[in-house]
Write a structure and sequence with these properties.
- By secondary structure, this protein is α/β, with parallel strands linked by helices.
- It has one domain: 3-Layer(aba) Sandwich (Rossmann fold).
- The chain has twelve helices and 14 strands.
- The strands form four sheets. It has a seven-stranded parallel beta sheet with strand order 5-2-1-9-10-13-14, with helices on both faces. It has a three-stranded antiparallel beta sheet with strand order 7-6-8.
- Strand 11 and strand 12 form a beta hairpin.
- Helix 1 runs parallel beside helix 2 and helix 4 crosses helix 5.
- It is globular and about 60 Å long.
- The two termini are about 20 Å apart.
- The structure holds guanosine-5'-diphosphate.
- The site of guanosine-5'-diphosphate has 24 residues, from helix 1 and helix 8.
- Guanosine-5'-diphosphate binds next to helix 1 and helix 8.
């Protein structure tokens, strides 16, 4: 029933990759497009690493482990150890097979291929049939404003384990960036747009900071369903709660609703968690379901609910 629906997913990292796997069980590959955050791309060992693109790509290729959800299952770390021995910094752990992706990506980028084309090539090589698009071919970088100064995103998250107190988020390069080819068409042409359970400030936020992408999403509001990353006042993983507090917001579904008010008409929250202010004007409508994706079946169940919510009302 859902297989022929055209679905576009806005995605960050692991939570989004799990949902993408759930959606891939229900929607024809050619009908599923995933638009992915590149704000946390970074250079390591001179290589261009796109953590969210790779998490989505490896997940749909069947290479990523369900938990922790990133990297390649059973990857080895020979190169990492050798690099350490040579004096390289290695706080961002890259496995051997994973490194091959970054080497190939960097080579193709240095030959002048845009990130969207390189991503399509990598996906084809790994047998991914869904369309994965970077949000932009231009460099957009998330910078955390913290108690110890401005930090590139991976420096804040991985090197410093999200310990510095967050005071704000800056998205550098966004004002000059355009959406990657195919992104606007994917949003406009979708029957349903889904905002994954990703961090709204550092995964979805960078995408919405790209002007034409944001405008397309605002126009697509009526057909857009977002999933709250908050369950029981906590993030399933990651530093979302401290980030929200850092920018003066509470860690609850009402805050997520306020962040997505202009781009989503429905916000899916965990069972019994729709806030009492649910009728606030201009906010998305709340829908409740089990939003924790503990395994592939849980992801499929959530994906099915999202597709049902995004279905046009039956006539007559
Ligand atoms: P990011 O998107 O790269 O920032 O990283 P993740 O996808 O790992 O996590 C981002 C947000 O997604 C976190 O705030 C998590 O709470 C949320 N998240 C991860 N898995 C799930 C899940 O199964 N259900 C829900 N509702 N949220 C999740």
């Amino acid at each position: 029933m859902h297989r022929s629906r055209k679905v576009t997913l806005l995605a960050g990292g692991v939570g989004a990759a799990r949902l993408a796997r759930g959606l891939a069980r229900l929607v024809k590959p050619e009908n599923l497009t995933i638009v992915v955050n590149t704000g946390d791309d970074e250079r390591f060992h001179g290589l261009h690493v796109s953590p969210d693109l790779d998490t989505i790509m490896y997940s749909l290729a069947g290479l990523a482990p369900w938990s922790p959800g990133w990297g390649i299952k059973d990857d080895t770390f020979t190169a990492k150890h050798a690099l350490e021995r040579l004096g390289a910094e290695s706080w961002f752990a890259l496995g051997d097979r994973d490194l091959a992706t970054h080497i190939r990506r960097t080579q193709r980028l240095s030959e002048g291929a845009p990130l969207s084309r390189v991503t399509a090539e990598l996906c084809a090589a790994l047998g991914v049939r869904q369309r994965i698009l970077p949000m932009s071919d231009d460099a957009v970088r998330t910078v955390m404003r913290t108690s110890v100064g401005a930090l590139p995103f991976q420096d804040y998250l991985v090197k410093r384990r999200a310990r510095p107190r967050v005071q704000g988020v800056s998205i550098r390069g966004a004002s000059k960036a355009g959406p990657a080819p195919g992104v606007l068409r994917a949003i406009r042409g979708a029957d349903t747009v889904i905002i994954a359970p990703s961090n709204p400030l550092v995964s979805i936020g960078p995408m919405l900071s790209v002007k034409h992408l944001r405008v397309a999403m605002q126009k697509a509001r009526a057909k857009t369903v977002a999933v709250s990353p908050i369950i029981n006042g906590r993030a399933v993983k990651g530093p979302l709660v401290s980030m929200l507090r850092g920018i003066g917001k509470k860690a609850d579904n009402a805050s997520i609703a306020s962040l997505y008010a202009r781009v989503a008409s429905t916000l899916v929250v965990a069972l019994h968690e729709a806030p009492v202010e649910k009728s606030l004007r201009g906010w998305p409508v709340f829908a409740e379901t089990d939003t924790l994706m503990s395994d592939e079946l849980g992801a499929e169940r959530l994906a099915r609910t999202l597709l049902e919510l995004g279905e046009p009302p039956a006539c007559g």
